[in-house]
């Protein structure tokens, strides 16, 4: 086993690549303010990157808004879907009066069926 190991090299501990000739992207700091806790978070992004309008606050976890010239940007929420419940989808298909009528029919059926069953049979 010892004759198969590489001598003089710590595998995984050091990279064989160097940073010679590497050009790093220009970076800039952007500030996000949380309206819930009032704290500001400074994030570093590439100057060519598309900035997110909101960032998660590292203190409370709520949404922090990007500040431009010390003013928060207006967050565009037009593309967000509103969560619909089962009740909302049901009301799209039927009126409340129809639902009450169906409920009465079903209760009548269940009560009639319960009365016809024999105990112990």
UniProtKB/TrEMBL annotation:
Quaternary context: Forms a complex with the RNAP catalytic core and with free principal sigma factors.
Record carries keyword Transcription: yes
Name of the molecule in the record: RNA polymerase-binding protein RbpA
Species classification: Bacteria, Bacillati, Actinomycetota, Actinomycetes, Micrococcales
Keywords attached to this entry: Transcription, Transcription regulation
Gene3D superfamilies in the cross-refs: RNA polymerase-binding protein A
Xref: InterPro entries: RbpA_sf (IPR038638), RNApol-bd_RbpA (IPR025182)
Protein task: Binds to RNA polymerase (RNAP), stimulating transcription from principal, but not alternative sigma factor promoters.
Source organism per UniProt: Agromyces tardus
Family: Belongs to the RNA polymerase-binding protein RbpA family.
GO molecular function term, any single one: bacterial-type RNA polymerase core enzyme binding
């Amino acid at each position: 086993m010892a004759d198969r190991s590489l001598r003089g090299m710590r595998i995984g501990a050091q990279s064989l690549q160097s940073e010679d000739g590497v050009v790093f992207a220009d970076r800039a700091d952007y500030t996000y303010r949380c309206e819930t806790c009032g704290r500001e978070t400074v994030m570093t992004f590439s100057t060519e990157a598309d900035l997110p309008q909101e960032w998660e606050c590292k203190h409370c976890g709520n949404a922090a808004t990007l500040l431009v010239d010390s003013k928060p940007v207006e967050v565009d929420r037009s593309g967000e879907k509103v969560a619909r419940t089962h009740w909302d989808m049901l009301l799209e298909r039927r009126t409340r009066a129809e639902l009450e009528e169906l409920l009465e029919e079903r209760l009548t059926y269940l009560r009639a069926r319960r009365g016809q069953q024999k105990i112990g049979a």
